[in-house]
């Protein structure tokens, strides 16, 4: 299962229906990212999935990279890991930005690389699920591991901030 933005499930017409069917058939869970309450519900959904012993794919950046570099991870991944008590396996997906560049309507057929890192155990932080400094440290450690296995350049800024700034200029 993967967490996916809810917009993938609400499109209209035949294209919207096809996209929705694809995401449902591939085990995607719709996540509303429009507000703090919506984000809280998304995190709780993720914790429930993990607590049931299921696998959950999470894109820690929270959105697609605008330029193929790796951006700062959101702390929700840390909270889910701590609350569910699971190991985190960093995964790097390489060249996805070339398959479906931002703004393109049709994906390009191209091979995507997938690299798995070593499992990360954050049990040493048990009880600190609400400590923002601990959550930031865990998210940063996960992103550092992804940099190590992907070779991507790291940008210590949220991808959504970079995209918003690019759309203004």
Automatic annotation (TrEMBL):
Pfam families: Acyltransferase
Record domain Phospholipid/glycerol acyltransferase: where: 2-96
UniProt keywords, alphabetically: Acyltransferase, Transferase
Keyword Amino-acid biosynthesis: no
CDD domains, sorted: LPLAT_AGPAT-like
Gene Ontology annotations of biological process type: phosphatidic acid biosynthetic process
InterPro entries: Plipid/glycerol_acylTrfase (IPR002123)
Gene Ontology MF annotations: 1-acylglycerol-3-phosphate O-acyltransferase activity
GO CC annotation terms, alphabetical: plasma membrane
Name of the protein this chain belongs to: Unannotated protein
Organism, as annotated: freshwater metagenome
């Amino acid at each position: 299962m993967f967490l996916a933005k809810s917009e993938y499930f609400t499109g209209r017409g035949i294209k919207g229906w096809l996209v929705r069917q694809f995401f449902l058939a591939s085990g995607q869970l719709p996540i509303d990212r429009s507000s703090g309450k919506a984000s809280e519900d998304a995190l709780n959904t993720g914790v429930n999935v993990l607590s049931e012993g299921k696998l959950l794919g999470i894109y820690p950046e929270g959105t697609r990279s605008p330029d193929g570099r790796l951006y700062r991870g959101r702390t929700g991944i840390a909270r889910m890991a701590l609350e569910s008590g699971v190991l985190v396996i960093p995964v790097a997906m390489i060249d996805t930005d070339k398959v479906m560049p931002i703004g393109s309507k049709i994906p390009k057929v191209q091979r995507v690389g997938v690299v798995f890192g070593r499992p990360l155990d954050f049990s040493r932080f048990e009880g600190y699920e609400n400590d923002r400094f601990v959550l930031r440290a865990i998210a940063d450690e996960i992103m550092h591991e992804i940099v190590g296995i992907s070779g991507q350049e790291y940008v210590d800024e949220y991808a959504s901030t970079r995209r918003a700034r690019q759309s203004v200029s």
